[in-house]
Amino acid sequence: MIRLIRARIDTHALRSNLAVIRAAAPRSRVLAVIKANAYGHGLVPVALALSTVDAFAVARIEEAGALRTAGITQPIVLLEGILNVGQLAEAAHLQLELVIHDPMHIALLEQYRGSQRLALWLKVDTGMNRLGVRPSQFQESWDRLQALEPAPLALRVLTHLACADERGSPVTAEQLARLAPLVRGRGAEVSIANSAAILAHPATHADWVRPGLALYGVSPFAGEIGRSLGLVPAMTLESTIIAVRTVERGDCVGYGATWRAARPSRIAILAGGYGDGLLRSLPNGAPVLLKGGRAPLAGRVSMDMIAVDVTELPLVAPGERAELWGGGLPVEEVAEAAGTIPYELLCGVNQRVSIELV
């Protein structure tokens, strides 16, 4: 069956990007972040493609369950932790590693009566002010986790960086300075670095790195594309031309009549809209790659369709493919046009889009 809109996922690119990450942090193990359906790339297919990583990280227990059902045996870290006794029992059944970011979690573990020993990651808030125990709570939290029965299978430490994607920001060094005295002399494995820190801040590499966006070939730095960092885009989002129309000078296209033809024009209508995850904030002039070159968006993104001015590309015709982002049109560029970040575009690709591995 021919799909009108599809996301082609290059598994060779995924593995190439993993190699770049390993080369950047050769002394660290890799905890591959595949939450949010692997940033829109397909949870299970990406896990299978990245079978050589040391562990996977997900946000929700449902994601971990899907991986186990698919036969994934690597360690899986549950980044958001658990909320109640029921989730703790399910996490133990799935043999998950738990991030402990609140004293509530420690209390649940102290009440735990299962025989399954759990690997735990104590998260410390060094300045993100989102999840994690405060530095002032760290020693008490560590001691309580050490005293658990059954004893933890492993007890590690992690933190999350707020400004690693800003190369000149002093915040990363400040966060490292807050963490250092907490972990010194404990012999615990530590994880600090996200994609940006892996590529720009070697001091953060520690025992484990946690790549997310870079695995998918996308730059975590504003104004840069993945290829400039040696990364290869893993996703090409392709659409199909379903009609080509001629409009006269002065005619408007789309809802709100936000685009008006300055000359007699040819307009290609493509399958794909906000019902598929495209952002309605994409403005007139945002690029689309078609046969023969780039063409600008004409009018608002609607639920199922977009319109593109192909006046300068006379050979386009219904049935031909178009690239919304990918190897020929960086997702970073499309995100900038939409006033957002690549994460939102990638994670927004929804269930109506067919995922095909290449």
Brief sketch in words of this structure:
Helix content is about 30%, strand content about 20%. It is an alpha/beta fold. The chain has an eight-stranded parallel beta sheet with strand order 8-7-6-5-4-3-2-9. Strands 1, 10, 13, 16, 17 and 18 form a six-stranded mixed beta sheet that branches.
Question: In percent, how much strand structure appears in the residues?
Answer: 15-25%
Radius of gyration: 23 Å
* Helical residue percent band: 25-40%
Overall pLDDT score: 96
Helix and strand composition category: alpha/beta
Order of helices and strands: EHEHHEHEHEHEHEHEHEEEEEEEEEHHE
Strand order of the largest sheet: 8-7-6-5-4-3-2-9
Uncertain segments of ≥5 residues (pLDDT<50)? none
Shape: elongated
Biggest sheet record: 8 strands, parallel
Span from first to last CA? 16 Å
Count the strands? 18
Q: Helix tally? A: 11
Characterize the structure shown.
There is one protein chain. The chain is an alpha/beta fold and 358 residues long. The chain is built from 11 helices and 18 strands. It has helices at 11-24, 35-39, 43-49, 61-69, 85-93, 103-111, 135-146, 171-183, 195-200, 331-338, 342-348, and strands spanning 6-9, 29-33, 55-58, 76-78, 97-100, 119-123, 154-158, 190-191, 208-209, 235-247, 252-253, 259-260, 265-271, 287-290, 293-296, 305-309, 321-325, 354-357. The strands form 4 sheets. The chain has an 8-stranded parallel β-sheet. Strands 1, 10, 13, 16, 17 and 18 form a 6-stranded mixed β-sheet that branches. α7 links the parallel β6 (119-123) and β7 (154-158). α10 packs across α11 (342-348). It is elongated, with a radius of gyration of 23 Å.
